[in-house]
Amino acid sequence: MFNFLKKRSTISDDGSIHLNYDNIPKHIAIIMDGNGRWAKQRNLPRTIGHKAGVETIRRIIKECDKLGVKYITLYAFSTENWKRPKDEVSALMDLLVEYLKKEFDELNKSNVVINHIGDISKLPERCSKELISAYERTKDNTGIVMNLALNYGGRSEIIDGVKKIAQDIKDGKLKIEDIDEEVISSHMYTKGMPDPDLIIRPSGEQRLSNFLLWQCAYSEFWYSNINWPDFSESDLHKAIYDYQNRDRRFGGIK
Ligand code: FPP
Asked: Angle at CA 65, nearest 5°, toward 227 and 112?
């Protein structure tokens, strides 16, 4: 059997999925979309949709950890989300603080590293304080790394990285001719982490929305019409099943 075929998962006649545990994506990134539509379909306020979205985070983190995923990056608030009505922005910030306070013990007990990416200095102080404290208290854990992308934008991240590189050159720490992919990666918020193998976007939209622009060069994309609050463990398995049945050639030939 060709080596790459061994990395595939299979599906039984009854439709059940058998994942290949030797080929679980190391890093999964998720654009948690569709909370608002989920709420609208139920005649509920949008914030209830976001609350329901937090429940999904809880379930999906557990499942990713169980499957052996090493990094999960969740797009929770983009640099563009400030354009939303003030009430919604404030409700999202409250939800974040509530989530970190309520879930901390459980996540810590499960050995999760609670990390953040994005410019959190622009978030309300109650959020940045809680995020920094959660990171400080979990940074030595050895389990799954959960990156909460907050006030995150792929373009802002690249701009920040370019500025840091320019400063390093100015300070004589780096030569222009030494700039390569590794140097750029090490100036991104995801420094030291593998690029995402799989990017998942529920809710039917098929765009990147300024997410992990540098890191997604060879990521596999998976889309579905399910809104994030309804995204289940079985949907996660379907996404990984598809991932395991694709040929990742990274520009080469199999
Ligand atoms: C996109 O759905 C979702 C967001 C912009 C926020 C995601 C936030 C959470 C799931 C909860 C808060 C996060 C944490 C980490 C506690 P949308 O509102 O754009 O949905 P729509 O496109 O259907 O309107």
From this structure: 105
Q: What is the pLDDT of residue 247?
A: 87
Q: What is the pLDDT of residues 43-100, one digit of tens each?
A: 999 999 999 999 999 999 999 999 999 999 999 999 999 999 999 999 999 999 999 9
Place of tokens 């009430």: 87
Measure Cα distances from 148 to 39, 46, 112, 247 in Å: 23, 20, 12, 29
- Whether 111 is catalytic is no
Query: What residues contact 40, with CB distance under 8 A and at least 6 apart?
Result: 46, 49
- Does residue 8 surpass a pLDDT of 90? no
Per the listing, tokens 């989920």 go with 38
Q: Can you give the residue ranges of every domain in the chain?
A: 2-153+197-244
Q: Does domain 2-153+197-244 have CATH number 3.40.1180.10?
A: yes
Which residue has the least CA distance to atom 22 on ligand 1? 34
Report residues whose beta carbon is within 6 angstroms of any ligand 1 atom: 32-37, 50, 53-54, 76, 81, 92, 95-96, 99, 148, 203
